[in-house]
Design brief:
mainly beta, 5-stranded antiparallel beta sheet, 4-stranded antiparallel beta sheet, 11 helices
Amino acid sequence: MSVAALALVAPLASAALTDPSDPVPAPTDRVTDTSQLPSGWQKSGDRIVTYDGDATGLHVLVADAADAYRWHTAATLSEPGVDTDQWIGQTCVTGSGDRAVVVYAPRQAVNDQQGFQQGAFAAVVDLADGRVTKLPELVSLAYFNPGCGDGEQAVLTRPQGDDTELLTVDTARAKLVRQQTVAGQLTSAVPFGNEIAAARGDAVVSVDAKGDTSTLARTGGTPFRLVPDAHRGLAYQVPDGKQVQVRRVTSAGSDQLLGSGALGSLAVHGNGGRVFVTGQDAEEAVKHSALPRSWRTLDVPASAEVSTTGSLALTSVGNGTEAAGGRKTAADLAQPVGIDAVLPGSDSSVGFKVVPKAAARGAEQSPALSDGVHTDSVHMKTTADDDPATSTTDPDRACAVTRNDPKLQSLQPSTAQAEWATDLAVQGKLDVRRRSGWNGSELPSYTPQGLFPSTPLKGGGRVPAQVMLGVLSQESNLLQASSRAAAGESSNFIQGGYYGNAGSVHTVNWAAADCGYGIAQVTSGMAKADTTYTAEQQQALTVDYAANIAAGLQILQDKWNQLYDRGLLVNGGDPKYLENWWLALWAYNSGLNLPSSTDASAPWGLGWFNNPANGLYPADRTMFLSSGYDDARTPNLWTYPERVLGWAAYSQQKTDPATGAAVRAFTVGEWPSGAPAAEPAHDTFCKPTANDCDITKPRKVAGSSQPEGPCQRDDFKCWWHQPVSWTDCTATCGTEVLKYAAGDPEPKVAAPHPAACTSTLPANALIVDDVPNTVKFRVGSTNPCAGKRNWTSRGTLTFTFGSAQQNGATVYPSKIDFHQLGAGFGGHFWLTHTRVPSYTDSVVTGTWTPDRKVVGSAEVMVHLPDHEANTPSATYRIDLGDGTVVEKTISQDTGGKNAWVSLGSYEFQGTPSVSLSSDTADGTGDASIAWDALAFVPSKP
């Protein structure tokens, strides 16, 4: 089995990977052997709530003990028009167990500071009936968000400048009831009595309804995981060097140490006033004599998710694609989730396999996003290529290379191709010749590192391959094209915030566009007004993954050199060691704040957001992926450099379809004693004399006596700008392992959806394709239809796009969810998703018109592609050429086949046309609707 033949689908959690020959029963969606359950389970009120995300949304999954923990989908949360391969987030459950508060966002939000801190959506989910109420504010993706109390209220947080905004939610009414801004950075906020408890610096504080704060307890570190108990107390954890303490403070300020253990070995969880201390040694670590009645220790992994009464603990949850760079599946197909669980206090373990319902409630647009002003679809007389009302492209865009140009499609690489290009690029040997017209573009011949030469590192050496592979994994999940495209298939480039729409399918804000392109998410030089790159370079890094990797490598090399010039070296600065790229990775993601030219005392350096000491990240986290691939469910728990080094050490995952075995997507680095041994401590970049950061001291805010650490500055500019050393790299650090040598050929890949090249219609069929004859279908340098094409397009497919008035300008939100794919008839088709007619700004209408009259009887045939076309309600409006219009509604689902489907025979009297619009009575944004070729087949005389 060649590497190219490996499917890019990761295994489920272990519960879902039962070998058919194994005598152990395969996991189901419930406990089948109920003898494992505690007595009285039929009347138990215990409930477990978890979540898992894929391209269809973040699935909120619920199981009740009284139903033998049978799992069902309470809701699937997503936002229409957001193109992502994975939704991420977290939940908390209210005291009654009847409701969940959910924070969710597309995976790529963690790569952007604003997206991380103020770009997540929030919703209240009724766990009984699945009713979803989306809240009108965007919030933080930090691990502690949301925070539930012992009643029906919850707290959401988001940074607001140098302060923190606290949003209190009454879940019974599913609405925000209070918004208040508090000075400083508050974390782990939860309802506590009639107030809010939170961590601020080295203290636990309470916040009253007026926003005034008071100190409940002063601690030796930043507290985290605050959980209210049933006796006016608050459980919390606080790091103490390499240890972690479990403590309890009362509303009166009485603070007590209840136990301690190694950092990461204990955790506190809770619901409805109950507190659970988890950890394999929790019973020995915590003083049982001092525990309040509502507290229990559970001998389960510290990271386990605990049910409302502590009767079930989940040890693993995942669908496997979280670490697999998952491509999109059909719009309504969710990935099965494997769940492993234990029953505390017994030796019993159970496994579940759950198939979430992607069509569950939660797909409607959040009120946190502006709807814009809906207007009618624009039908203009002009058909000029530069008219955004009718052009598939975006002439009014802010980014350099437009979407939806059939001559600028991006080829999706296999993981083998991505590793090949990376290995050769770091060696400076990515000199494969791309011939003129590569992948159907109009580019002249070039080589990737001819356009983007490798930059020599100052001090010598080169970038390790695994560092660059880690960057590509984190930036794009190794995708060059949209996640709708499989390896070997072309589509639009994968992009960041091209429309500046912050996730809204109804908003276009070119002024806020983030022009990230392709597998390395190259942003610098990719604005329309930026002249850093030539037009040829911009187009090459858009269509060609190898050119994009070469450009991304250049940027990383430049970051290293920028830091080298200022003496910012790690562990002596030998670039062959993977950990020594920590600061360069920090700069790659969030940049370097340069020294002031006028104020030598002004802060400068690497920003606070990616500092591991930042309270946005849990203090007891271990190395990313070191505990397993479940970590990929919640990448927001780690800083950017931590995630990149985790991918470098453990790789993404894929499954060999021949064996079903999980294998690495690319070669990992090599560590003498394992990768975690080389990780820096979380306080490595927190030094009072270096960046005004001190984990042992609370900082003072002007006019307040409250502590505010570890960053001692009111403006949080605790920016790192010094060399650092935390290990002897010769003994602990990772080094690269190359799979491909210079001169190795580019791996081959076969697209799973080959184009329908040959017409099977009668020779007299008048075929109107969806793109002009001048568009060349290529997969890289290959023409899959060479010698097979027996037809010529005889007409045009034109579009009109729904518009809206926003900020005084006409924009076209309908293009946000408009896509092209290099498959179907002739190797190209268009698609979007159906929506109800009232969303006029989302409507796309395509009209096929032949280049001649048709007189007499003819059958209308429409070609439907073998994927990304599944609406049951495609209504075609057939103009017979004399003003008479008839309608024909069909399902576009062909069962996975390229197929010609008849729309019926009609008497034509002139130049006909056929129109198809994306507005349907049942449109919810889930079902896809496609425009491929159409034909008029005259009846035989």
